[in-house]
Amino acid sequence: MLTGDTDQSILSVAVQLCKSCGGKLFVLFVIEPNRVSRLASLTHQKVNLVYDKTEENGWKLLYLAEDEAVENGVWTSLHLEEGSLLDLTKRYVDTYQIEALLIKRKDESKKIFVSSSIPVIGL
Amino acid sequence: MQLKISEYLKPEAIIMEIKAKEKLAAIDELVAHMVKNKLVSDGKEFIKALAKRENLESTGIGDGIAIPHARTNAVQDLLLAFARSPKGIDFSSIDGKPSYIIFLIASPENQKSEYIMALAKLSRLLRKHPVREMLRNAKDSKEIMNIIKENEE
């Protein structure tokens, strides 16, 4: 799971993890409207400008993940959604029968650790 | 880095009505069209690279869009191609729906950042519903080029 403040380092870990256990990799980038608005306010930028940058960065992270996954022979599925990280996490776990979550973010990940029905690996 | 998709899509890389009915045949047809127009030197190698991706992921990103793509030295520079299927093609999209608009992206192995940037920009552009509708209804390749030029940032 990726968000606006995720860096690339999580991608290699996710790919290697899937490679070592023969798993499939679902990469989800979540655009959180509240976070976008807050960032726009803090940086004195227009909300739509910050949204556009976040989305473009999201696609870049997704395709970087995919590129590395393909090089390692790992099956991948890319997703970009707007909404609550917590709600989307639950929906994806149910829809795609995800068996483990990999996340790198301090604040929100605490809620995911507590509420998740499957193992969560925090980086 | 400011990359414009419209600068990499040439009119001769546009198929207004693709004949193929399934994804690998569609890729074959697009590549054959590009080879015919001398945009790709090694069609076989190009198809091999694209097929490798298709086996490991779904390039159907939903909303009637598919973006088959690959990094391969079968192309000399970043390259885009466009095809439209009136009846839609099953690209195993994440939403289960057929793809009506197909964008193919390829770059040489050593142009990873341009390749990622082009994929990101195109994916973002095609998330816009009005753009998808305009592309589906465009009359000719000139109109396709204009839609992209006017809507990309």
Short overview:
The complex is a heterodimer of chains A (123) and B (153). By secondary structure, chain A is of the alpha/beta class.
What is the topology?
The complex is a heterodimer of chains A (123) and B (153).
Chain A: E1 2-3, H1 9-21, E2 25-31, H2 33-43, H3 47-71, E3 76-82, H4 85-96, E4 101-103, H5 106-115, E5 120-122
Parallel strand pairs in A: 1-2, 2-3, 4-5
Chain B: E1 9-15, H1 23-36, H2 43-56, E2 60-62, E3 65-66, E4 69-71, E5 79-89, E6 99-107, H3 112-126, H4 129-137, H5 141-151
Parallel strand pairs in B: 1-5, 3-6, 4-6
Antiparallel strand pairs in B: 2-3, 5-6
Give your account of this protein's structure.
The complex is a heterodimer of chains A (123) and B (153). With 123 residues, chain A is of the alpha/beta class. Chain A has a single domain (2-122), classed as HUPs (Rossmann fold). In chain A, 58% of the residues lie in helices and 18% in strands. The N and C termini of chain A lie close together (11 Å). The mean pLDDT of chain A is 87. The two termini of chain B are 12 Å apart. In chain B, strands 1, 2, 3, 4, 5 and 6 form a six-stranded mixed sheet that branches. With 153 residues, chain B is an alpha/beta fold. In chain B, helix 1 packs antiparallel against helix 2 (43-56). Chain A binds chain B through residues 52, 55-57, 59-60, 63-64, 66-67, 69-70, 73-80, and chain B through 52-53, 56-58, 61, 71, 94, 112, 115-117, 119-121, 123-124, 127, 153.
Name the features.
heterodimer, A: 123 residues, Rossmann fold, 5 helices, 58% helix, globular, B: alpha/beta, 6-stranded mixed sheet, 23% strand
Structural class of chain B: alpha/beta
Fraction in helix of chain A: 55-70%
**Order of helical and strand elements of chain B:** EHHEEEEEHHH
Alpha-carbon distance between the termini of chain A?
A: 11 Å
Order of helices and strands of chain A: EHEHHEHEHE
For the sheet with most strands of chain B, the description reads: 6 strands, mixed
Biggest interface reads: A-B, 20 and 19 residues
CATH superfamily of chain A: HUPs
